[in-house]
């Protein structure tokens, strides 16, 4: 009789370490908010030999800004008041003078190699003493948050020069802006102090061209 060897089946238990799945180590990175550059404000003043209504009419014509103002490469009025304008209308009015005051405009502003287009809220006022046009930047037109400017405000003011019987005017331009990042302020520091003065010079040239072309008309 043949004897067959008996075989025992051994149950092999996996080690506890092989049954447990170690969670993957997750690394998190914390980002500190980028510091905002301090606000900057520059002002330019000029006495011009033109009546206040003429100069106010030029300031109010935002659609034309890109044709004569430096640092403004595009300007489009996107909304106007439905009420008639309160400023004086010349004896030979342009189509712009008869339209309602602009209330919203897209302005593309840039200098020092950076530019951005803003949808700006516009306010216009004119009385027997002073005319004011203010553009306050809002969201970037592209629909995303602006990358260069945190805030940008321009304010033009024109009033009669005292003692000139309405023939001469005082013009004042205030520009306030805040960069998103101090880096932009650093690389444009040689340009920003000159912005208001350059815009005022361009405005004076524009006034001379228009008055010489069609007369004061008021």
From TrEMBL:
Residues 79-95 have a biased composition (Low complexity). One of its GO terms (biological process) is cellular respiration. SUPFAM superfamilies: Bet v1-like. Residues 49-204 form the Coenzyme Q-binding protein COQ10 START domain. GO terms for molecular function: ubiquinone binding. Belongs to the COQ10 family. This is Coenzyme Q-binding protein COQ10 START domain-containing protein. It comes from Ascobolus immersus RN42. The lineage of its organism: Eukaryota, Fungi, Dikarya, Ascomycota, Pezizomycotina.
């Amino acid at each position: 009789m043949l004897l067959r060897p008996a075989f025992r089946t051994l149950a092999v238990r996996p080690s506890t370490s092989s049954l447990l799945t170690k969670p993957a180590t997750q690394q998190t990175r914390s980002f500190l908010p980028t510091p905002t550059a301090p606000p900057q404000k520059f002002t330019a003043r000029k006495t011009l030999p033109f009546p206040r209504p003429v100069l106010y009419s030029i300031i109010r014509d935002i659609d034309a800004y890109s044709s004569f103002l430096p640092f403004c490469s595009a300007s489009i009025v996107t909304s106007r008041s439905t009420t008639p304008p309160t400023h004086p209308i010349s004896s030979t009015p342009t189509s712009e003078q008869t339209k309602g005051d602009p209330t919203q405009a897209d302005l593309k502003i840039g200098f020092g190699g950076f530019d951005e287009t803003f949808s700006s809220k516009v306010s216009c006022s004119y009385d027997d003493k002073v005319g004011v046009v203010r553009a306050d930047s809002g969201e970037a037109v592209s629909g995303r948050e602006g990358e260069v400017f945190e805030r940008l405000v321009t304010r033009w003011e024109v009033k009669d020069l005292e003692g000139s019987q309405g023939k001469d005017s005082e013009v004042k331009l205030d520009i306030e802006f805040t960069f998103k990042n101090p880096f932009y302020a650093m690389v444009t520091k040689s340009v920003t102090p000159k912005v208001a003065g350059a815009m005022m010079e361009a405005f004076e040239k524009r006034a001379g061209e228009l008055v010489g072309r069609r007369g004061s008309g008021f």
